[in-house]
């Protein structure tokens, strides 16, 4: 398979420092809103990179569920590989790959569990079938067959047949407090525009980076 000629040029737009918000969260909200309004598929999907004790990185996609000055929030199983890696090393990187608008955003920061109350509030807003799936899935651990998984779902459905399904204590959110956020806009001939915000106390410093 020859992949060498698979490429395209990025011609949609440029990015200038004068167009950037002073605060990267405000800038992120502008770009995320545009990604949603332009009906990108999975606009909130982000790749999350964590590292294990040996320094081996691993990644997976999760959905961003909240963002504000305090950081970026996603939800997962606290026994999952990502959560176990974060327990040993809170350093994390997030990546939004908005191909259709020739943009990407990278976030580096530190992840912390949110409160059980906050997690329960989000859990209760989810569709019931997804709540049952969270109860049934020992995320990231081997499961012998799909049938075993479905049996576990059926057991949970029976157990929680009446009333609200409570949030499992092994499931909840992480908030990523960022210290670096980069905005990338594709440019012609690989001469892209990149701006990196770095936290300097209460303020943010902005550097244009070479593409
Ligand atoms: C579009 C998309 C969204 C996903 N959203 C989540 C999510 O919000 N939370 C989650 O735990 N897993 C989500 N997943 C599944 C994860 O990618 C991953 O398989 C799972 O969290 C286990 O990862 P780990 O074993 O590295 O911990 C999503 C997958 C895709 C493709
Ligand atoms: C395992 C898992 N957990 C959580 C989510 C996030 O879904 P929701 O928007 O229902 O919270 C997803 C989305 O794909 C997922 O696959």
Break the fold down into its secondary structure elements and pairings:
Layout: H1 24-37, E1 45-51, E2 57-63, E3 66-68, E4 71-77, H2 81-88, E5 91-98, E6 103-113, H3 116-125, H4 128-136, H5 146-159, E7 171-185, E8 193-200, E9 203-209
Antiparallel strand pairs: 1-2, 1-5, 3-4, 4-7, 5-6, 6-7, 7-8, 8-9
Helix pairs in contact: 4-5
The chain binds flavin mononucleotide and pyridoxal-5'-phosphate.
Pyridoxal-5'-phosphate is lined by residues 63, 75, 126, 130.
Structural summary, described in words:
The chain is built from five helices and nine strands; from the N terminus they run αββββαββαααβββ. It has 211 residues and is α+β, with helices and mostly antiparallel strands. Strands 1, 2, 3, 4, 5, 6, 7, 8 and 9 form a nine-stranded antiparallel sheet that branches. It binds flavin mononucleotide and pyridoxal-5'-phosphate (PLP).
What would a concise description of this structure say?
By secondary structure, this protein is α+β, with helices and mostly antiparallel strands. The chain has 5 helices and 9 strands. A hairpin with a 7-residue loop joins strand 7 (171-185) and strand 8 (193-200).
Key attributes of the depicted protein:
binds flavin mononucleotide, binds pyridoxal-5'-phosphate, alpha+beta, 26% helix
